[in-house]
Structure formats: structure tokens, C-alpha cells
């Protein structure tokens, strides 16, 4: 059969979804960014009324325009949108059937559900679900809608959004959307390009180069006001229409580059507020109307049950409960879990499963747990058929109350026995530390394993928690993704329970590409055979190993190797149940792009492994992991190659656009990028850094040669933020700046500093190494801290939108790791003075405290002794490097055998002077030999210490003084009656204690 | 089979049109008033590239909103739009097949193609075609697109626009769109109302009551500018998108009542200009692209041929050309002609057919012509098989040159004979008034009738002209509607020719509701039998008679009669080939609406005959004429009843809205209705009239009692223009004003004057009769004339947008017919002084001249003698009534036997004084008796004449003076040598001639 035409694909989808009972809807007559915006989705998903709908939506995303130069990325593309409310219970299967309806056989492709958590800030909407990949190409967004217009959805809607062009591209085997046959060839030749290509170029030109920013802004304001007016009159749809128009206007302005960062947040806030008001009004309107839509064809499904015997008939005929130890199997069948959740679930199962069986007093010979994207498994070998019996001694009333004067049991004792279910004759006397009591030995007979498991398993499953959980049906259960079946067997017997509207049974499901066939499991032992027949590798380690081996083999075949990438490997391992690795190639021309770009594209967008040669140079290959067997692997490979070609084309497009002009020329664009309203644009920040360079270089004591480098680098530091590559892939900021700088002939050191000034980008990231890079990195962070604190934007609780914790930590890490002795108070002043708003003394102190807190946390994370850290930080928190040094010193000292005596000596000096004002030391007035000796020792010690001497040096000299201290306290009465004598002695001790000042506060130490 | 659901109807149409090769398209993502606006129509119809497309378009027409109170009229409805470019040759048949595809069987309904000439001023587009009626309901607009964006279309596109709701309404037999089943009942219950009703009410409220006029206006300006900017950058589609957005904004503003008459024209001009610029740019862009779309499946069809033998094989086997007289038949088969064009064509055929045969020298026994909406027929009985021979005598060279001295023929004569194709021996001598010549008798043998007809018939058909003609295929032929077949027979033989890409043949087509079956016509004689079998009544008179008879019978059955309506009868007669009359009823409740409203709705919208009782009171019935037989007549009747119900519901809606408030309360609204920019609003005009009432009443010499009536009527005169009924049906202006005034308790006379002030509305219309009505009617027209002339808007050539010719003619008709002696110069002055802009003396004169010109034209139309009219108008054009009187007088006088002597007498007085200055008459200096007698006669005559004496009275007194005149010229030498005597005699004659001043200028008369 020839591949369907574009229009026939739409017709087949219409037919398919109409058969499922969907309303066939029309695209909206307002420009939308996505079908979600159509009121048939965004409003109809609100409230309790059921709603099934399917429609095409031309989706306008000005920002995605590529002047028709990309094979499959355009400012306009056709979505096919389906909403199923409530969840019919099998939406993934319906979706896969719909693909078959248009001619996509899952056996011939690699169809994958890859985690994607969708969110639309403007619409106040979010949901969890997946991107669906067809041979590496994202063809569909599949989401369980949790919230819309800021309102919780009850019930949840299933949203399926097909990318029609990409589906047809794959179906027709074309290289670019422009070549897609729109018509059935029987009706002649007409391509997608014939219809749209010219318009695509024009729209891009309009959005990027022509649109009048001022006019569109004004229109936005008018429309926002109209939305409000309409809503004031209770007009929901007209109000919503204007929200959509505003949204498009915003997208236009954004593509035109007219929206800065903070401004963007403001626009989003306005749109979200509008949407929320509309949603509230709509919900209320429907309530008042009494929810008129009530189509029984769209009712929520009954409980899902997966057994080989009919629902309601109880156990399978002829099956009796085991009376001997038997295997136990729990399989929680889910829709594809996110990779991270597979790990999380596995870790929880490993901890919780033994605990469960232990708590239930169910012995077993061995216990294993597995997790794949589609199943969580607990398997116990030879589980006891019953709980072990329990014997407990329960303490009753005191003996004196339990027996009357005649030694007979009192009513209290009899009541106790009755309450404990034991015969009075079985009561015993026991002696406790509180005296004598009666006690009952209570024996609880073990219950059958099936019964207790049936009771416990719902709670067990409920105990598995995820960072992000979702609801999907009326049970209200939240889980990472919907639970669709549960196998719970004890030997051949089903352990009956219901969780999340799923009834446990004895039918598992097979591999997704095989159509997830029902797999009746006769007994737990048979489970592994069934999985094995499907090629499903339950064990995560085994999956990983297989991937590593195959990957290396395929790389080696082309003389390559795989750069280490544990994160990617871990992720990929959790994306498949049956890993089959394939190698694809791409044009070596693409290797002209910077390596980071290529690797980022392969890794982040496609989860591909890059391949490099023995010198570390990239080869024109990638390695991908398919879920399934080797059937039609060539077709899957071909599809993946197409995808990476489009991806690289996109990157090349950006690269071409970016390199057509010098990096410096991107700077003016930064003036439209608001850093923060009060703090000006990113360009302002950039210029601020440049101005601060001399001061920082001086403070850091860097050589004169650093200045020009740092200055130039600061000038260009943020320029790449305006390049298309970075706009598209933010993670490349700095990387591209360095790359483009070098292309422009900037010195290596300048380029490197541009790159390094972003470091560290995250915990565990590299730190700047070059002097200029260090200076800029510090400046950038201090600037953010000073400015944003002054603007009242210090982080609160968990909210840290500007990443100030990370910034502060970066400062700490750089200084500590690069061993830079810098007083942050000194460094902060010029930065604070350079801000466009006043930075008060209090704010400066708050910034320093904030950094100190990061320093503390960082040090404690290094498992350093808490008291040592506190002791040093109490005096040195403003200079992280010195603090680290001091801590290192102190850690050595506290290990010494004589430490306690040294500390004790010092403590005596400190303790007696506590609470005393500072007295002037008059050495000449010291008369007792011991005090004179101490003074001499102190004098020598103090003279031997310089400012840069840290805790170690100080302790070394103090250790030498300890005899003098000891003698002093032995021979001299500090608190002499003569006030002058007393004060002078205290002054001497204060001076001794003062040796620690600026170094450590030993009073924080344990044992002080 | 159950009726299809709404969404299934769309799917069936998609399937049907996809099978015809159409691109299935999506609605546009910008609010459109109609599918025509979608670039898939408006731009793709431009230029030579073929294009077949079909799509749904939600069409937004704010003005049509009824707050969901009407069963089938809404601000949003779904169009299904099809474009076929070029014309496939059978678009009507395809369309009818598509109706069958959704379950509409033409045999069970009355499907009619009713003339509709579509125009979109904003899009600069127009075309000719039809509304398609299904049982009286307009369900489709079918147009041959002639122009779009101001550009001629080559080729022409066929545009088919279905009104989906109305089609489904009929299919499902629902009473209101809100009850339409959107889903197949197998998928549950969901109505159109469930989806749209609430939104409909909201949109109406927004458009009519909430929208912010100023904001939307500003947005229009921004968008207009964006369109221009985009176009300056060559961006056609973005520019066009903004045109569409402007168009919707305009519609919103209009519905909000924010657009005055002139302002509207301005907006249309702006939108038209934008569209035209876009269209030009698009056309040029496609040209530069080399017209890439070239789908052979959409190629124009080959020649259409309708014969019972294969194309190219010539004559039918065994058929030989008649050699004896045989019948001749020409049938031009067309798509449904407009009613008026049927009449026009018939009249032309009646004149041209005999002339054709005469010119061709083809005798026949009798000749008849017929016209129906689908065929134009010429039938000649016993036409000669050959032309009659022709014998002509052709004059050659003079005899002296034709013969040499020997009497032999010269070379000149021989050459002449050769040239004429005669033997030299046949040359003859003839004698003319110029002398003797040689001559040849040239005989042309008659050629076969078939040959000459084959040559002549194309020209004959081309000779049929229509007021509005259209092109449809590559032949470029223009005709009222497309010619689809031609039967041309001479006896059994086809007369072969091609016209408009149609090859003549011998196959006619039957009645439309029978599927227009092919009807092979063996011979002309068989034609009438074939038509008869189809029930087709070729003869117009017979059709009319049948309609009249059936109509009257059906009316009589319910005790009613049909009010005379010749125009409607004539129209209906031309809308059907087989008339079958049906009677439908409607709820008597609707009779509460004013009769004019009901009749207007029935007549104008539906072509129904109203039914009244013997007292002239309407009965709740209507009578409609179906094209076809009586099959399923009940269903057709039911459909028609549904339609009129909806129509009346709409009227009732307006009536309800209008009568909810007093008529006076509509006045303020008139302030937003611009009459003309410089002349203010309609309210200003209304108030101007009210202010002028006293002056006009006085000038007209009407009694004091008229003043309050006229004043009150003037105050309310234009109020009904703001009522919804009049906004909807302009023809009811005045009618509704009168009606609503009476409802408000205004006096009869006031109400009548409100009505009458609009009279006459057209040529042949009634004239005002009441004094107040007359006064207002005159004032209204003079006001328009004075103001608009002053504003520089006098009519030019054929353009008369403000209807000033009609206004001036109205003034003339009222004054003349109501016999009102009014000096227009006097009447104009106060009106001119009341204008908000200065009205100069020149302008006033121009207005009076303009009215005089209307008066002249009107008089000449009455077939009055041209010279008499000119003579009187020369002196009395400013007072139409007196002019008419004068003309009447003069016409009597010129009939008198002594008229020439009277005229001669008067002429002598005039002629001799011509070119002389005016001399003072000194009676005392007259000395000769004849001159003294003449003076005495003059004196008596002059004294006996009063100002009001017209031409008759003046001639009567002058007739008495003629002896004196005669004697004067006999006895007196006027041109005496004495200058004083001479001048005094000339002065006397000037005085005599002056008797005609202000009455007539006799020098204009024939014989003067």
C-alpha cells in the first residue's frame, strides 16, 4: 500500500477518533500556538462534564521559524489534537491503534514514550506524560492534563497531540516536510511545499524582521483590556478569545526580540491571570448551568481487571491456596515511567519489600525486586503460606491490684485476661524495675499470606512516592504514571485487591512493540519465562550491561569509542525493556559544527551516544537504543538518521546565522534583554562587570597582564546570550561565546575567560582556571548577589528564581578550590557601589551572611567535623579560602594527644574573661613572676604571628605558651581584690585569648 | 437510513470532494466573514494556476447575531467552501451529487438555482451565480468568480459555499440549529446548541453591547499599517492576514453601531485598497515563481460535446442531409438564467431569429422561440434545405471603356467579367443616369442550409446580450450563465459548430429534479415530445397561466385571494421549467407583525405569494412555486414552512426589539450615522428639516394647522432608520416609521407624513398626498441637493451615489403632480442657508439647473412636443407646476389654425429687437397712429395680465393685439433715421415681446 497523503492521514485520524466517539472539531479561528489553546481543549477540560474531541490545529510558533530552511521545523505546523475526558483506561493503546490506522506498524518502527512534563505558563496549565518518539522523531505529545487555567482538573483529561508533518514525513519517507505529498497521487501532484513554503518564508521575515513592536504592544494592551471588559460582563468566550490574541501577540513580540527576561515574566503573569479569570468564570458558568453535557458514551470506565477468569467469579476454578511455601509475585504494570522514576521506584522497592514481608511476618527464602519503564516487580522465593505466629508478653495491672488479700484474682486481673483473650489461668507474675505485675502471654496465630498481602499491598504500592506524581482516574491515586494492571500471585493463586481502580489479577502484558499482548501468568515461577519470551530484561544492571556491550561493539566497528557518559547510560537503560542498539550515521559535513553543539544535540534531544575516534575527535555516527528486537532495524535506523539530520540542520542554521556577524555585534541586542527591572538590561550588567574588572583584578592581586584580557572578556562576556544557538540551547552559553570569540580572532585567554565566567554552572561542574575567568566569574556572581539583594529579591524558602544560592556557592567554591585569599567584604564594596540602586550596609551584610551560609553548608557537605567548621567560620566566614585553611589546621590539631590540655589552657583564658569588658593591658604593672612570664610568652607569640597566619600557626605558638598559662593560673589569683591588679590580669588573659581572633572561636569546639 | 450527524455531513463532503481531486483544507486561523476570505480562495483564484480545494470555514458575521433567539441565524455559522479552478464543465452536477452524498435526494425536494450576484466590496471581488434553495431555504451560494482583489480572474473559478447548518437542519428535520445532532447517536447525544449556544449569546452581547469602539478603531489603524509594512517587504500572506483582521474589526465596529454611512464607504475603500495591493503582489509573486502549481488532474476539460455518436466521427451513421424542407431546432442549454435574463433573451430571440433566417435566405413555414431558465429555443417548421439563389446585377466599366473602336470587348471588360465569375458573353449593357455601362448578372446559387447555419449560429448566439454577463471557461465567451450544451438539428442531421467550447449535438437535457437526464433528440419534431415527457413547459405564457391558475385555486381553498403582483408573477414564471404550486401555512401569531413586513419577507426573500382574505387582511398562508412534479410535495412544503418560520422569527425579533422602546428614542442613535462628513449626521439632517418646516409650510401656503403636524413628523422623520427592522430591510423605511409612530400614539397625520416624506422612493412610486408629507418630502430632497452640491458631490456621468437625480425628479413630480405652485429658487434659499457649509450663489444656481434638467427629461418622457417644452422651460423651469401649466396652454395654442399668424406677429416684434439694448419706452413720444394704437393695445394687454397668468392668458391677450401689430409694421418704419424715434419704437416692440417674459420663449418654437 502506498503511504497515505497528508490530507488522507487527517481523514483516517478523523475516522478513527470519530469511531471512538469523539466530537470532530475545527481549528480555531484565532492564531494559536497549540491545539491546547482551542477552547475545545482549554475550557472543556475544566469541570466534571465528560468530553471527547478530535481536531486539527495549525499551530503558530513564530520563534520556531527557520525561513523554510529546516526540513521539519517551521513557524506553522499542523497538530492533530485529541482530548479524552475522563481517561478511557487505555489511551495509549487507542493512540497506537490510531497510528496503525494511518499505516504505522509498531513492529516496523521504534515507538517510544519518553518522559515529557508539559507546561504552559501562559495558560496556567500543566500535565505529565510523554513525547512519543517514532524512530527517534518526536511525533506526539501525550499528556495527562492535571491543571488548566490554574484550576485542578477533576477528572483528569488525556491530551494527545500529534505532529502531523512529522508523522507523514516518516510515512512517506521524505527528507523534508516540503516534499510531503498533500494529495493522493491519483489526484495529481501537490506538495506541502507548494502550499506553504512561500508563506513560511514570508511569515518568518515578518516575525523576525518587520513586525512593528510598538503597534503590537499597543494592541496587546487593548486586547487585554477587552478581555477584562468582556469578563466583567460575564462573557467567557469573547474574553478568552482575547487571551488567545494576546498570546499570539506576545509570541510575535518575542520572536521579534522585543521581550526581555523580566518583561517576559510580566507578560506571562498577565496572560496567566487572564486565563485564570476566564477559567474561573467558565467553571462557574457551567456549574450554574448544571453541567448539561452528560454523554453516557463518554462515561469513565469501570474497574480495570486483568485475569484469565471473569471478573466477579473469584478464584480460578480448581486453584486452591498454597499450604506450603510458594513463590510470591507482585507486578505493578504502568505506562512508561520516566527514567529517573524507574531508579526511584527501584530503590524504594528494595527497601520496602523486605520490610513489608518482615512486618507481615512472612518468611521467604529470597527476595528480588526489578524495575523497567513498564513494570515494578517484587518476587519472593518460597514465601511462607502463613504468617509466623506471634507471642507477646503483655503487662497487666500491678500484682497488688491483681490479687486480693486472699491471693485471688481481682476483677482488674480478670478483665485484663479477658481483654487480652487469654484464660485467667495463663496469667503470670513478672517483675519489672517498677515492681511486680501480672502479665499475659498473648499468642497471635499467623494468618494466611494471601489474606495479609491482600490487605497490605494497596498500602505498599501507595507507599511508593515520586518527585512528580499525577492523577489519572476517579480513584484519585497519584503515581508517576498510570497503573494499568497488577499481577499479584501467591503460587497459582491471585492475591485479590484493588488499587487505583485496578483489580489485581494474573495477566501481565508483553513488550510494547509486540502490542503489549496479554500474558497469563500461571504462577510466579512462570513469570520470568514469560518475560524472557518477550525479550524483556527485568534486571536494570543487565540492561545496562547489554547496552554498554552493544554500544561499544558498534562503535568499534567504525573505529570509534563512546565518550564516558554515565548519566546518559543510566537514562537510556531506563527507557527500554528490551534494548537493541543501532548505529546511524550523518553527513561528515556536520562535523564542522562545534563538538559541544553536536554532542548536546545528540545527547539532550535524542539520547544518542556520540562516537569519537582514538584522538577524541567526533566521528559522523551516533548510537541509539531501540526498545525491541532487530526486526526492521534498518527502517528504525533510517528514521533516526532523518531526525538527527533535521536537528543538525537546525543547529547549522543557527551557526550560520550567528557566524555571519562578529560576536561583538550581538551586544546591542542585550539591551532588550532585561536582567532585572531595577538593575537594567543584561547589557547593563555586562558593562558593569567590565567596569569592575580593574578593582577585582587588583583585589585578587593578579598581574598587570591579566587586566586587558579580563577587560576584553568582560566586554564580550554575555554577548553569546543573544546568539541563536544559545537562545535555542541555553546550556551552550559560554561554550558558544568561547567558540565565536575564537572565530573572531580573540586571544585564547579572552575566549577562555568568556567561557569560564559561567563556571560553575551547577553543583559538581568545573571551576574557572584562568585568572581572567576567575575574576569574571566572581564579579558576575557578586554583582547578581549585591544587585538582587538590594532589589529585595533574596531567595526565600524554596524559591530562588535567580539562582542566588548557586551563585553564592560558586563564589565559595572558586575561592576555596582555587586557593584565593579574598576578603569578600572588601570585594563586595566596589560591586555594591556600582549597582544602579543603593546597596545599604545592611544589605551588604546580608549578602556576606548569605555567602557564609553557603560556605558552611558546603563545608558540612564535605563531612568535616561540625564544631571545627563552626569554630573557624565564627571568625573567618568572609574569606572562604582562609576558612578552609583554618579548618584544615584545626582538624590536625584536634587529633593531637595533647589537644585537650592545649584547649583547656586556652579555654581557661577565655572563660575567666567572659562577660568582662576589654581592659587595657599595662605590662609594666604586671608584678608576679607567673604573670610576667605569661606576658613574655604572649608577647613572643603575638609578635611571631602575622595576619596571614592561620589557625595552625596560632595554635603552634599557643601550644608553646601552655606551660606559662598553667603556671599563671596556678600561681596567680586573677580576681585580686585590688581592682587595678585584677583588671590588668584580665587584660593579659584577654590578650592571650585574642590570639585566636580572626582565626577561630575555640569556644565552639566540643570539649571547650 | 437515519440522517447524518453534523460532523458526518462534513466528513461525507470531504470524502466527496477529495474524490473529485480537491485539496482538503483547514479553516483559517483568523476570524473570517466567509470562506472566500481564506487565502485558499481569495489568493489562489488569482492567476492561471489550477486549484481545487474544499474546506470548512466558521464564518463570523457579528451583525447577524440574534442572541441565539433565531432558529437559524447566528453570528457564527459553518460554511463548507469549494473552489474549482478552472471550471470542470459540470460543477452544478457535481454539486448536486455532493448533496446526494449527504443524503439529499433531489427528487424528494425542491432544489433551485436562484439568481444571486455576489459581491464583496471589501475584497474587491464579485461573481455571478445563484443561491441554491432547498425547499425555499438558501443552503448554498454558487458563484462563478469573475474578479477578486480587484483583478480579473483568468480562468474563472467556480465557488460553492454550503451553509452547513441549514443543510443539516433540513436533513435532520429539526426546527432550530440548536437542536442539530452533532454526533452520530451511536456515540451519544450532543447537540449543536450544547456546543455553541452559550457562546453565541456571549458573542452577540460582546459585539452589540460591550466592545470598546475606540480600542478597536486604534487596532484597525495599527493593523492597516502592518499590512502596508508587510507588503513593502514583499510579504503577501502576512499583509493579507492583516487585511482579514481589519475586516473583522470593521465588522465588529459595524455591529456595535459605530460606523456611519460615509465612514463605512471610507472603510470599504481602505479595505479594498489593501486587498487590491495584496492581490497585485500575489499575482506578481506567482508570475515570478513561474506558476509552479500545475496539477494535470485539475486541467480544464476538453470541449463539451453532447451527441449520441462519438466525438470526431462526424455525422451519425446512416443520416443524410435533408434535401426537402425539414424542421430546424436550436436549443441553447444553459445553467439557470436569472429571471430577467429569460425575458431579455426571449425578446432578442424573437427579433433575431427571423432576421437570421431572412439574412440567410432560408425560407420556413413558421418560426417560434421559447425561453426557460435552462434553455433558449428557436424552432423553424419546414425550413428550406438550401438558401434561395441570389441574382445581382453588378455594374462594370463605362461602355466606352468596355468596347474598343471595333465594338470588341476591351481588357477592362474581360477582367471585369472574370472577376465577377461570369462569361464575357453574359455581359450586358445598361443605362444609368451617369451614362451607359457594361454590367454582369451574377447568380449565387443557394448553399445547403446546414452549411450556412453552421457558419452563422455561433454569431447568432454571440448576438444575445445581457445586462450582466459572465465568463466561465477558456473560450472567453460571456453569457448570462454558462452554456453547457447545444442542440442544433436540421431534420435528423446535426448542424455542426462550436461555441463557448461546446460542440453542437443532438442531446438535450431533461428537468433538473430528474437529474437533467440526457435526452437524445432524433429530430426537431421529437423535441417537443421529449420536453413534454419531462413536464417542461417551454412556453412562458403557458407557465404563467398555469401558475396563476394553481395559485388562485390554492388560495381559494382557504378562502383567500392573491394580491396583484405582476413583478413577482413574472419572476416566478422564469424560475421554473415545470411549475407546481404549493401552499404552506404559518402560525397566525405572526400576523401580529405589520402586513408590509410579512409581505416583504415573503415576496423579497422567498418569492412567495401572500394570501389575503376578501377584506384584504393577510391569511396565515403563503403560496410557493416548485420546479418539478408533485412527488414529495409535502416534504417540500414542510421545508418551505420551516424557512418562513425562521424568517418571520427574525422579523419578530426585530419587531420585539424595536417596539420595546419609543420611536423617538432611536433618534440619538442617528448621531452616529453619518449622512455626509461635511453635512453631519443623519440626526443633524433630521433636525435641519425640522427647523425648516415653518419656512416651507409658509412658502407652500399651507394652513396653520399643518405646522404642528409637519414639525412633529419632521422630528421623527428619520428615526426608523435606527430601528432593527429597517436596518435589516431598508425597503421598509418610512413604513416602519409610520407603524411605530402609530404604536406610540402619534396622530395619524404625523405618522403618514413620516411615511410620505420618503416618497417617491423610485420611479413610478406613489407620491406624498398629505400637506405635511409633501412639505417634508420637498424639504428632505432640497436639503440633500443643496448640501451635497455644496460639498462638491453633485452626480457625475453615471455615478450618483447619493441618488440626487432621483431626489430632483421627486421634487419635480411632487410639485407637478400635486399642482403646487412653488418657485424653487425661493424655496431653496432658506434650505441652503441652513446648511452647515456655505452654499454659494453659483451652487444654488447649479442645483436649480439640475432640477430643471430633471424636469425637462421628465416632460420629454411624457412625449410632449420638444419645442413647446423648451419654449416654456426657457422661462419657467424654476416652477415645475407652472411650467406644466404653461406647456399645456401652449400645446392648445399651437393647434389653432391662426397660430402661425399669431406666432408670426409675435416673432416680428421679437426679431427686429434682437441684439438691441433695452430702451426706455416714452409713450408720449409715440406720434404715428399705428404706433399709438399698438401702444394702447399693449397697455390694455399688459394691464390685464397678472403674475399668475400663464402662457394661455398671455397668448389670449396677444392674439387680440395682432391686428395692431400687423398695422404697426405696415404703417410705421421702425428704423427711423431719427435715433430717438427709432429707439422709442424699438422700446414699444420690446414691451410687446416682453409680454411673454416669465412665461415662455416663443423663439424656441418650430416655425418661429
Q: Could you walk me through the main structural features you see in this protein, from its secondary elements to its overall organization?
A:
The structure is a homodimer of 1008-residue chains. Chain A has 1008 residues and is of the alpha+beta class. In chain A, strand 6 (137-148) and strand 7 form a beta hairpin. In chain A, helix 23 packs across helix 25, helix 29 packs across helix 31 (951-971) and helix 29 (899-913) crosses helix 32. The interface between A and B is large, with 65 and 65 residues.
Low-confidence stretches of chain A: none
Quickly give the structural class of chain A.
alpha+beta
Rounded to an integer in angstroms, the radius of gyration calculated over CA atoms of chain A is: 36 Å
Beta-strand proportion of chain A? 15-25%
Cross-sheet strand order for the largest sheet of chain A: 1-2-3-7-6-5-4
Portion of residues within helices of chain A: 40-55%
Average pLDDT confidence of chain A is 92
- Count of helical segments of chain A? 32
Q: Give the overall shape of chain A.
A: globular
Q: Main beta sheet of chain A, described?
A: 7 strands, mixed
Number of DSSP E strands of chain A: 27
Looking at the chains present, what oligomeric state does this protein adopt?
homodimer
Pair of chains with the largest interface and how many residues each contributes:
A-B, 65 and 65 residues
**N-C termini distance of chain A:** 87 Å
Amino acid at each position: 500500500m502506498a503511504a497515505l497523503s497528508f490530507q488522507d492521514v487527517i481523514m483516517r485520524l478523523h475516522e478513527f477518533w470519530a469511531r471512538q466517539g469523539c466530537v470532530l472539531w475545527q481549528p480555531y479561528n484565532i492564531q494559536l500556538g497549540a491545539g491546547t489553546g482551542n477552547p475545545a481543549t482549554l475550557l472543556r477540560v475544566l469541570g466534571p462534564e465528560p468530553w471527547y474531541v478530535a481536531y486539527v490545529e495549525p499551530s503558530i510558533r513564530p520563534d520556531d521559524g527557520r525561513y523554510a530552511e529546516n526540513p521539519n521545523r517551521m513557524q506553522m505546523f499542523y497538530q492533530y489534537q485529541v482530548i479524552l475526558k475522563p481517561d478511557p483506561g487505555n489511551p495509549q493503546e487507542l493512540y497506537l491503534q490510531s497510528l496503525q490506522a494511518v499505516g504505522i506498524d509498531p513492529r516496523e518502527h521504534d515507538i517510544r514514550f519518553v518522559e515529557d512534563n508539559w507546561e504552559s505558563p501562559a495558560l496556567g496549565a500543566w500535565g505529565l506524560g510523554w513525547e512519543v518518539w517514532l524512530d527517534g522523531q518526536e511525533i506526539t505529545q501525550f499528556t495527562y492534563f492535571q491543571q488548566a487555567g490554574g484550576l485542578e482538573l477533576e477528572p483528569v483529561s488525556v491530551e494527545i497531540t500529534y505532529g502531523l508533518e512529522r508523522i507523514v514525513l516518516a510515512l512517506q519517507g521524505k527528507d523534508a516536510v516540503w516534499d510531503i505529498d498533500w494529495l493522493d497521487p491519483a489526484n495529481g501532484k501537490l506538495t506541502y511545499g507548494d502550499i506553504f513554503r512561500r508563506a513560511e518564508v514570508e511569515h518568518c521575515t515578518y516575525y523576525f524582521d518587520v513586525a512593528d513592536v510598538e503597534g503590537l504592544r499597543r494592541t496587546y494592551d487593548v486586547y487585554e483590556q477587552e478581555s477584562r471588559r468582556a469578563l466583567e460582563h460575564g462573557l467567557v468566550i469573547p474574553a478568552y478569545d482575547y487571551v488567545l490574541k494576546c498570546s499570539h501577540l506576545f509570541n510575535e513580540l518575542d520572536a521579534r526580540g522585543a521581550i526581555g527576561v523580566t518583561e517576559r515574566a510580566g507578560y506571562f503573569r498577565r496572560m496567566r491571570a487572564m486565563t485564570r479569570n476566564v477559567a474561573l468564570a467558565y467553571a462557574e458558568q457551567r456549574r450554574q448551568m448544571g453541567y448539561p453535557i452528560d454523554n453516557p458514551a463518554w462515561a469513565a470506565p469501570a474497574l480495570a481487571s486483568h485475569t484469565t477468569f471473569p471478573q466477579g467469579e473469584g478464584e480460578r476454578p480448581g486453584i486452591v491456596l498454597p499450604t506450603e511455601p510458594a513463590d510470591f509475585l507482585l507486578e505493578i504494570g504502568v505506562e512508561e515511567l520516566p527514567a529517573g522514576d524507574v531508579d526511584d521506584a527501584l530503590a524504594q522497592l528494595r527497601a520496602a519489600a523486605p520490610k513489608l514481608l518482615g512486618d507481615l511476618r512472612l518468611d521467604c527464602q529470597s527476595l528480588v525486586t526489578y524495575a523497567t519503564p513498564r513494570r515494578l516487580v517484587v518476587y519472593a522465593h518460597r514465601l511462607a503460606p502463613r504468617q509466623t505466629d506471634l507471642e507477646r508478653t503483655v503487662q497487666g495491672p500491678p500484682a497488688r491490684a491483681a490479687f486480693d488479700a486472699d491471693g485471688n484474682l481481682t476483677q482488674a486481673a480478670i478483665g485484663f485476661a479477658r481483654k487480652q483473650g487469654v484464660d485467667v489461668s495463663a496469667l503470670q507474675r513478672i517483675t519489672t524495675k517498677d515492681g511486680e505485675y501480672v502479665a499475659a502471654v498473648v499468642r497471635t496465630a499467623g494468618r494466611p499470606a494471601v489474606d495479609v498481602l491482600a490487605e497490605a499491598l494497596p498500602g505498599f504500592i501507595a507507599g511508593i512516592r515520586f518527585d512528580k506524581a499525577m492523577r489519572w482516574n476517579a480513584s484519585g491515586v497519584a503515581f508517576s504514571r498510570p497503573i494499568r494492571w497488577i499481577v499479584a500471585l501467591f503460587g497459582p493463586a491471585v492475591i485479590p485487591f484493588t488499587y487505583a481502580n485496578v483489580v489485581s489479577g494474573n495477566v501481565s502484558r508483553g513488550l510494547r512493540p509486540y502490542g503489549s499482548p496479554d500474558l497469563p501468568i500461571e504462577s510466579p515461577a512462570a513469570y520470568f519465562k514469560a518475560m524472557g519470551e518477550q525479550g524483556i530484561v527485568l534486571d536494570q544492571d543487565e540492561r545496562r550491561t547489554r547496552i554498554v556491550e552493544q554500544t561499544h561493539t558498534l562503535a568499534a566497528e567504525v573505529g570509534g569509542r563512546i565518550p564516558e557518559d554515565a548519566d546518559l547510560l543510566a537514562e537510556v537503560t531506563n527507557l527500554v525493556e528490551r534494548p537493541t542498539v543501532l548505529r546511524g550515521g550523518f553527513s561528515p559535513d556536520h562535523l564542522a559544527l562545534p563538538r559541544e553543539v553536536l554532542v548536546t544535540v545528540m545527547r539532550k534531544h535524542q539520547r544518542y551516544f556520540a562516537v569519537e575516534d582514538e584522538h577524541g575527535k567526533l566521528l559522523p555516527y551516533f548510537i541509539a537504543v531501540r526498545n525491541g528486537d532487530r526486526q526492521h532495524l534498518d527502517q528504525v535506523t533510517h528514521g533516526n538518521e532523518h531526525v538527527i539530520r533535521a536537528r543538525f540542520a537546525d543547529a547549522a542554521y543557527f551557526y550560520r546565522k550567528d557566524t555571519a556577524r562578529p560576536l561583538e555585534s550581538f551586544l546591542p541586542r542585550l539591551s532588550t534583554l532585561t536582567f532585572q527591572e531595577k538593575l537594567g538590561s543584561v547589557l547593563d550588567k555586562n558593562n558593569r562587570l567590565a567596569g569592575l574588572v580593574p578593582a577585582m583584578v587588583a583585589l585578587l592581586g593578579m598581574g598587570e597582564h591579566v587586566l586587558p584580557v579580563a577587560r576584553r572578556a568582560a566586554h564580550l562576556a554575555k554577548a553569546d546570550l543573544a546568539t541563536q544557538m544559545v537562545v535555542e540551547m541555553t546550556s551552550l552559553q559560554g561554550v558558544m561565546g568561547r567558540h565565536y570569540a575564537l572565530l573572531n580572532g580573540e586571544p585564547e585567554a579572552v575566549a577562555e575567560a568568556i567561557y569560564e565566567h559561567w563556571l560553575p554552572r551547577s553543583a559538581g561542574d568545573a571551576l574557572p582556571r584562568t585568572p581572567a575567568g576567575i575574576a569574571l566569574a566572581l564579579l558576575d556572581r557578586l554583582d547578581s548577589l549585591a544587585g538582587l539583594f538590594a532589589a529585595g529579591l533574596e531567595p526565600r524558602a524554596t524559591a530562588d528564581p535567580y539562582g542566588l544560592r548557586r551563585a553564592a556557592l560558586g563564589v565559595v567554591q572558586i575561592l576555596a578550590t582555587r586557593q584565593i585569599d579574598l576578603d569578600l567584604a572588601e570585594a563586595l564594596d566596589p560591586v555594591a557601589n556600582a549597582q544602579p540602586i543603593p546597596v545599604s550596609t545592611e544589605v551588604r551584610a546580608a549578602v556576606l551572611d548569605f555567602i557564609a551560609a553557603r560556605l558552611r553548608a558546603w563545608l558540612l557537605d564535605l563531612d568535616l567535623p561540625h564544631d571545627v567548621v563552626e569554630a573557624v567560620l565564627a571568625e573567618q566566614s568572609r574569606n572562604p579560602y582562609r576558612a578552609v585553611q583554618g579548618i584544615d589546621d584545626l582538624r590536625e590539631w584536634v587529633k593531637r594527644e595533647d589537644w585537650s590540655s592545649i584547649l583547656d589552657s586556652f579555654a581557661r583564658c577565655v572563660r575567666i574573661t567572659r562577660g568582662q569588658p576589654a581592659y587595657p593591658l599595662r605590662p609594666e604593672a604586671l608584678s608576679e613572676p607567673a604573670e610576667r612570664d605569661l606576658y613574655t610568652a604572649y608577647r613572643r607569640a603575638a609578635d611571631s604571628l602575622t595576619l596571614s597566619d592561620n589557625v595552625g600557626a596560632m595554635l603552634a605558638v599557643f601550644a608553646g605558651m601552655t606551660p606559662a598559662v598553667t603556671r599563671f593560673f596556678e600561681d596567680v589569683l586573677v580576681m585580686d581584690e585590688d581592682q587595678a591588679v585584677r583588671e590588668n590580669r584580665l587584660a593579659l588573659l584577654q590578650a592571650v585569648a585574642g590570639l585566636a581572633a580572626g582565626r577561630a572561636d575555640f569556644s565552639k569546639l566540643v570539649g571547650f
